[in-house]
Specification:
91 residues, alpha/beta, 3-stranded parallel beta sheet, 4 helices
């Protein structure tokens, strides 16, 4: 994903939003961060949530304020769908 973000999407600044209840999510976030920064990218924010949460507005507001060009969310589709809906409402 870090390779895709830098080479295909041409992103230079990304925020990471991780599910702290999931070791898989935490591992993906760690490896994304390592690969992305090694490729010259900048992590603008690292925030987390608990899988199953319903309100992400506070974290999304902080992510938006950090000025990323993209957000890496290594999580399950149920959480990601709600995150995307709420992110669109903040745009």
């Amino acid at each position: 994903m870090a390779n895709f973000a830098t080479k295909t999407l041409k992103l230079k600044k990304v925020a990471i939003f991780t599910d702290v209840k999931s070791d898989y999510s935490k591992g993906l976030a760690k490896f994304f961060k390592e690969g992305f920064t090694k490729a010259g990218g900048q992590i603008t924010a690292e925030l987390d949530f608990n899988g199953g949460d319903k309100d992400f507005k506070a974290q999304l507001t902080a992510i938006k304020a950090s000025g990323p060009e993209g957000v890496f969310i290594p999580a399950y589709y149920t959480d990601v769908a709600l995150i995307c809906i709420q992110a669109k409402q903040l745009a």
